[in-house]
Write a structure and sequence with these properties.
The chain is α/β, with parallel strands linked by helices. The chain is about 35% helix and about 25% strand. Among the domains are: about 200 residues, ANL, N-terminal domain (Rossmann fold, 3-Layer(aba) Sandwich), CATH 3.40.50.12780; about 90 residues, ANL, C-terminal domain (GMP Synthetase, Chain A, domain 3, 2-Layer Sandwich). β5, α5 and β6 form a beta-alpha-beta unit.
């Protein structure tokens, strides 16, 4: 029997009524009953804003408790959520709001000061996430409702608001729940249409298979809720269990993250490779690299005791209450992963994508294989387009209840990846006889940003290639930094009187100008000049894999 995603949210609120629910780190804390009241009040605002079931509601701001409240209120009302990464440039936000046909925008103050509401022509109302005040609206009823919100809430629930008063939208499996944009650039923007069945397929699996996480556990939320990994695994899963979620509400630097871990003592940590790698490389590897430590690690039995102490110290730095760290979004550095496996650290690597809401593979940390992404999940059928799928990498195709409906208003892009119910992930891999997935390359070339943002190098390259005296370029990730490899137009440069140094100086000027148009997480830190054309395939595509370590 189909239960419905909103029913899980509703049940958790009723069951955990008096438990702590959402906190802004170093700020306000709400119980589940407080969240229930806020959701009901947002329902009143949506109703008076003329929002109908199925209408689009855009949400753009930093991770906060109010962001999560807005998301749950949108779905439980029956509207379609459109999460937008707050780090997108203004024109990207305008594009997504317009393309999604959002009627209402909930926006954080840091985003609002940089966007132009006149360029979002379909919007009827704009509400500030911070305090739900009305910034702009064409509905007088909404203005009145906000000014008299407590009064209207009191009239709706005159005999005290209780768990029995909660009754959320009864969603159908194929009903559209949210549109998640994989990118903010006009030319490449694709809105992934995720129905409720995709959310519920993921949610049920996590609830049934991650048994060690329970109501009352603390979770530190570091990943942007505007992406499915953070939204589903960190927030929706934890909320539906009755956990206490702490939002950092600020840039997740290693210092702030470790401080939050020490204070909140999380049982589960959901993160991206860069966070783990930075901590290991700065806190552990320098210690093990000392001469005395190297000698001690070569002595039998002593090495085991030493590594056990390293594991204990490392677990303490994560709060001392850790049961598992789930790393996703990109491949973990092999050296780091093998070290953590050696000391028995409770870490596992999973795999997914926005189009699958997001999970495709995962295994509990005590039941995984080194360098794998876990097992393909039981709700998925899969195939590898290879003559020998266990040994020769091929493109991974997925079929199951977690797969998207397609890209919003983009049939061409949908047809490019969908074959009936099957979806081409665009990633290359093998699956061994035990069902463990080993990724060998991402044919989509996506790079993971420092806080889990999706970075598509082709978009940046498109901008670079339009700059002065650039013939072609490749953007690569080197130790968490974006580097642009550029082959300049030397022939034209020579005709214009440029010498070699002048060309190099111009490319640096191009880099500075480019960064002014890019979000902070997409900044190009360095340019490397190539003096020969990049190697191409027969189709004249650059052989990108040749340049990843350039």
């Amino acid at each position: 029997m189909y239960k419905g995603f909103n029913s899980y949210v509703e049940d958790s609120i009723k069951k955990n009524w008096d438990k702590m629910s959402l906190s802004d780190y170093k700020g306000v804390t709400y119980q589940y009953k407080d969240i229930a009241r806020k959701i009901e009040k947002i329902h009143i605002l949506l109703e008076n804003a003329g929002v109908k079931k199925g209408d689009k509601v855009a949400i753009c701001g930093k991770n906060t408790s109010h962001w999560a409240v807005t998301f749950f209120a949108t779905l439980s009302y029956g509207a379609v959520a459109v999460p937008i990464l707050h780090e997108f440039k203004a024109d990207n936000i305008h594009n997504i709001v317009n393309h999604s046909e959002a009627k209402i925008l909930f926006v954080g103050d840091g985003v609002w000061e940089n966007i132009n509401d006149e360029l979002m022509t379909g919007l009827e109302s704009i509400i500030l996430i911070n305090d739900f005040s009305i910034i702009k609206t064409s509905h007088e009823k909404l203005k009145y409702a906000r000014e008299h919100l407590n009064e209207l809430f009191g009239k709706k629930y005159p005999n005290r608001f209780t768990p029995e008063d909660i009754s959320y939208h009864k969603n159908e499996p194929e009903e559209l729940a949210l549109i998640n944009y994989t990118s903010g650039s006009t030319g490449f923007s694709k809105g992934v249409m995720l129905p409720y069945r995709a959310l519920e397929t993921n949610l049920i699996y996590i609830l049934e298979n991650v048994h060690q996480q329970k109501a009352g556990d603390n979770i530190v939320s570091m990943l942007p809720m505007a992406h499915m990994y953070g939204l589903m695994v960190e927030v929706c899963n934890s909320f539906c269990r009755g956990c206490h979620i702490h939002f950092l509400t600020r840039i997740p630097s290693p210092k702030i993250i470790l401080e939050a871990f020490a204070e909140c003592k999380p049982t589960f940590i959901i993160t991206v490779p860069l966070v783990i790698e930075k901590i290991i490389r700065t806190k552990v590897f320098p210690l093990l690299d000392k001469p005395l430590m190297k000698v001690m690690l070569m002595i039998p039995f002593l090495d085991e005791q030493l590594l056990a102490k390293v594991r204990t110290k490392l677990e303490e730095s994560f709060g001392g209450n850790l049961k598992q760290i789930i790393v996703g979004g990109a491949a973990l550095n092999k050296e780091v992963e093998m070290f953590l496996q050696k000391i028995g650290f409770p870490l596992t690597v999973g795999y997914g994508m926005t189009e699958c809401a997001p999970l495709i593979s995962y295994s509990w940390c005590e039941d995984t294989k080194p360098l794998s992404c876990g097992r393909i999940l039981p709700y998925n059928e899969y195939r590898i387009n290879s003559v020998d799928p266990e040994n020769i990498p091929g493109e991974l195709w997925i079929k199951g209840g977690n797969v998207m409906q397609g890209y919003y208003k983009n049939e061409e892009a949908t047809e490019a990846v969908m074959d009936g119910e099957w979806m081409n992930t665009g990633d290359l891999g093998i699956v061994d006889k035990d069902g463990f997935l080993f990724l060998k390359g991402r044919s989509k070339n996506m790079i993971l940003g420092p806080s889990g943002q999706n970075i598509y190098p082709e978009e940046i390259e498109d901008k670079i290639n339009n700059m002065q005296l650039v013939t072609e370029s490749i953007v690569i990730d080197q130790e968490g930094k974006l580097v642009a490899l550029i082959y300049p137009d030397f022939e034209s440069a020579s005709k214009l009187g440029y010498d070699q140094k002048s060309v190099i100086d111009l490319m640096e000027e191009n880099r500075v100008a480019l960064n002014k148009t890019l979000p902070a997480y997409c900044q190009i830190t360095k340019v490397k000049i190539f003096y020969e054309e990049f190697e191409k395939t027969a189709k004249r595509s650059i052989k990108r894999f040749l340049y990843q370590n350039a």
